[in-house]
Amino acid sequence: MHQPLRIFPVLGLCFLNTFLNLIQAPMSFCADDPRYLNCSSTIQCGDLQGISYPFWGLNRARYCGLSPEFQVTCNKSAPIITIKNQNFRVLHINNALRALTVARSSYWYNLCPGSLHNTSQVAPFTYTSDTVTDNLTIYYGCPSSSSTNVGSMMESSRFTCTTNQSSTVGYVLARKAGDLTNANLASIEDYLGTCNTSVIIPVNQSVIQDLKANATLDALKAAIDQGFGMQWLDDDGLCQKCLKSGGQCGQVQDSGEFTCYCREQSYSSSCPGMS
Ligand SMILES: *[C@@H]1O[C@H](CO)[C@@H](O)[C@H](O)[C@H]1NC(C)=O
Ligand SMILES: *[C@@H]1O[C@H](CO)[C@@H](O)[C@H](O)[C@H]1NC(C)=O
Ligand SMILES: *[C@@H]1O[C@H](CO)[C@@H](O)[C@H](O)[C@H]1NC(C)=O
Ligand SMILES: *[C@@H]1O[C@H](CO)[C@@H](O)[C@H](O)[C@H]1NC(C)=O
Ligand SMILES: *[C@@H]1O[C@H](CO)[C@@H](O)[C@H](O)[C@H]1NC(C)=O
Ligand SMILES: *[C@@H]1O[C@H](CO)[C@@H](O)[C@H](O)[C@H]1NC(C)=O
Ligand SMILES: *[C@@H]1O[C@H](CO)[C@@H](O)[C@H](O)[C@H]1NC(C)=O
Ligand SMILES: *[C@@H]1O[C@H](CO)[C@@H](O)[C@H](O)[C@H]1NC(C)=O
User: Fold this and answer.
1) Which atom of ligand 3 is least distant from the CA of 117?
2) CA-CA distance, 261 to 272, in Å (whole number)?
């Protein structure tokens, strides 16, 4: 007869806690939903701190975020997301704008990756409006000396990749607004068209625009390492509503539906007791 008497007041207080949200810290005997606790933690990796929904990974379980592309891994202080097998280093996340700045991992301070691939489709993300997706091209395996003087005109953006003791010549070309008035551009493009292959890197248009007419290799590399912007879809304020009610945002794994993890259990949009 002793046990039920002890349990009832506890349930009553839990009930109060849920609906009034007044008493919190002393309620340790109300078992917090482990999913609420898990999704309350944020991701820290290098310079990137406090990353939350829709991102998951590391200390945040799969159910705390959206699709696999939102999984963050941490490689020696470098936060990485992976889209279609391609790794992107995450430089910045702006939750309010649902935007992030990323750079291709294999081109991070490196113009000679092991294998050459154009940037894959970035779905479920879309490029931000300040990203240009075809204005910076890296050319590989270019004829080392040109009969024209184009090679020397491009001298400042020339680099070499050395693999297995053999070197190949490459160039980085940034196409800027106003370039069409550059009489040399056509012959430069003709020459670069004879290179073995090329890779197009998305870049921030304002960073490209700031490049000097005759950009140095260092400036071009810096433009690549500044990264470019991607956005994710608007959720019509769903997560904001959940956070305001004291919950943590997440996703039901089976259905892919949004869910709001509250202290005691999960709800479809927000925690009860507050609007
Ligand atoms: C959250 O869950 C994940 C996956 O189960 C686990 O690896 C991680 O340690 C948990 N994090 C916290 C803060 O409990
Ligand atoms: C981690 O980063 C290093 C360079 O710092 C790179 O060589 C390595 O491939 C990366 N590992 C993974 C799993 O991406
Ligand atoms: C990248 O895309 C450009 C333009 O579509 C193409 O010419 C080039 O061959 C592609 N590079 C690779 C490595 O697939
Ligand atoms: C272009 O590729 C072919 C075949 O891989 C190679 O034989 C040739 O040397 C390359 N050209 C240059 C300029 O690197
Ligand atoms: C670019 O600058 C280099 C020296 O840094 C110079 O040799 C070259 O002629 C310049 N090219 C153009 C197109 O001005
Ligand atoms: C370098 O040589 C090794 C062994 O000869 C070969 O397997 C590899 O493909 C070569 N790498 C390149 C980039 O040519
Ligand atoms: C990108 O290149 C095109 C020409 O190829 C040019 O019209 C456009 O203004 C360039 N964008 C930027 C941001 O420079
Ligand atoms: C592009 O560069 C500008 C100027 O540096 C910056 O304000 C903006 O945030 C950058 N965009 C992205 C997506 O990083």
Assistant:
1) 13
2) 11
- Tell me, yes or no, whether 195 lies in a domain: yes
Which structural domain, as residue segments, surrounds residue 256?
Answer: 237-267
For 267, the token pair is: 């709800």
Tell if the pTM clears 0.90, that is, is over it: no
Ligand 6 atom 12 nearest Cα: 163
Q: How far is the CA of 99 from the centre of ligand 3 (A)?
A: 27
Separation of alpha carbons 60 and 43, rounded Å: 7
Kindly compute the dihedral angle of the four CA atoms of residues 17, 18, 19, 22, in this order, to the nearest 10 degrees.
40
Q: Per residue in 11-51, pLDDT tens?
A: 434 444 444 444 444 444 567 899 999 999 999 999 999 99
Alpha-carbon distance 50 to 45, whole Å?
Answer: 9
- CA 160 to ligand 2 centroid distance, Å: 22
Structural domain includes residue 181: yes
With a Cβ cut-off of 6 Å, ligand 2 is lined by: 75-76, 87
